[in-house]
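# nightly structure sweep
# worker-07 picked up a monomer target from the shared queue
# config: single-sequence mode, recycle default, output format = structure tokens
# input follows
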Amino acid sequence: MGRSMAPNTYLDRGFIVMVYIFDAAPVSLRTDLSGALNRAHKRLGQTGDWLNGEQRRAVVAETRHSWDCHLCQVRKLEPSPYSVSGEHQTFGNLPASWLNVIHRVATDPGRLSKRWFQEALSSGLEEDEFIEIVSVCVQALAFDVFSTAIGMDLPPLPAAKAGDPLRCRPPGAKTGPGWVATIGPKDAGPDFLDFYANDSHFYIRRSMTLVQQETRRLWDLLNHLYLEDPRLFELEGLDRGISRAQMEFLAARASSLLGCYY
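# output follows
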């Protein structure tokens, strides 16, 4: 992943002008897709629910850096990631508990386990922090991989904005159905009911609802990279260049190569 990074500003008559990163893509992108990618890139440097802008930017940087981590490369070849010990190659500005989450999500997502999750919490991470770190990591991976796939330089790191996160846990959170607490449709407050408005409560959508606004940020990107509220019908009324069958073929192949068994 060590490629040059496209600039996101330029000078025009002495004024600094912002450039929306994915508007300069080397291939034609749907307007909704380039908009979602641009929003995600900007938001990753803004204050989140539990992390501030500097921390979120650092997670993006570490996610990108993890692809060159020697420990992660060796572990990937072993039957179990626990069969090899050592230290991650890092920028050195994040706690070890964060690094173990980021590097495993980025380089070995097919073998994440409840043991890995419990180790993260026992090392000092709050459950809510864990969710936001994973979300930022996933979004960073999404726009880096997408950029590489279309032959585009990796985007620059997002600009970090000042501000303190509220760090508030929603009252309706309950453990399950997976490892972490979630907000189910019956427990959603009035400010989150719309997230379940379409009666399509896939567990993959519910999985990170403990951190509600971060969940919205994540799905604002994923809905445009794939499909919003995917059903079994064909792409009725949606602007896509390939058929649903072709999309599912590509998704299945990518999942196989990346070890995603959802």
